[in-house]
Write a structure and sequence with these properties.
The chain has one helix and 13 strands; from the N terminus they run H-E-E-E-E-E-E-E-E-E-E-E-E-E. It is α+β, with helices and mostly antiparallel strands and 195 residues long. Strand 9 and strand 10 form a beta hairpin. Strands 3, 6, 7, 9, 10 and 12 form a six-stranded mixed beta sheet that branches. A five-stranded antiparallel beta sheet has the order 4-5-13-8-11, with no helix packed on it. It has a two-stranded antiparallel ribbon with strand order 1-2.
């Protein structure tokens, strides 16, 4: 009786050890898979946003910090793209020749490269808004426009030759008008050096 009981305990122990070993192998496989995913995510998120206050809010409060804008033509509103905070920038066109815009800049970038500017935009009343990227006071301005009535992402990519003392200007605009008017919303302004 004692031998049968002992044999049963040994068999149960071996069976449990096999199950445990199988669980360890499965867990290691899952960890390896998660590590690969984590590495991929790190590679995709290794680029950093160069713009300060890209979502027009600080700790959930509306903010135009680091943005130059005419507060008569610019306001912060609670209309945002999916999953992007609480506030966005709303611009209305200026009465000609005044422009309804907000502008920020970055300086001290040490290397030339390919830069990608991504902005979420939404047009009200089919009014066309634009996003532009300019180096120093150059007349050469890279610009993209949008008049979509739903939140949509616009992207501008450019190769820029930089010195450490150069300044990149990012301008969001609702333009100018003499007759009719509209509104353009902007959010999640992202400038990355991609290469």
């Amino acid at each position: 009786m004692y031998n049968k009981l002992l044999t049963g305990v040994i068999l149960v122990s071996i069976f449990n050890f096999k199950d445990c070993n199988k669980s360890i192998i499965e867990t290691r496989s899952k960890i390896d898979t998660l590590s690969k995913i984590d590495t991929t995510l790190k590679q995709h998120t290794s680029m950093e946003n160069i713009i300060f206050n890209s979502s027009f809010e600080t700790k959930g409060n509306p903010s135009l910090a680091k943005w130059n804008a005419d507060t008569i033509l610019a306001s912060l509103v609670k209309d945002v793209p999916p999953e992007y905070g609480k506030w966005s920038l709303q611009l209305i066109p200026g009465w000609y020749p005044q422009e309804g815009f907000a502008e920020t800049y970055v300086t001290g970038i040490k290397e030339s490269g390919i830069f990608k500017l991504t902005v979420w935009m939404k047009s009200l009343n089919n009014w066309e808004g634009s996003v532009s990227l300019r180096l120093n006071n150059s007349p050469n301005i890279k610009k993209v426009s949008n008049s979509t009535g739903n939140w949509s992402m616009v992207t501008l990519t450019d190769t820029i030759l930089l010195n450490e003392t150069d300044t990149l200007f990012i301008r969001l605009s609702a333009g100018r008008t003499e007759v009719v008017s509209g509104k353009v919303l902007f959010d999640n302004v992202l400038l990355e050096k991609i290469k």
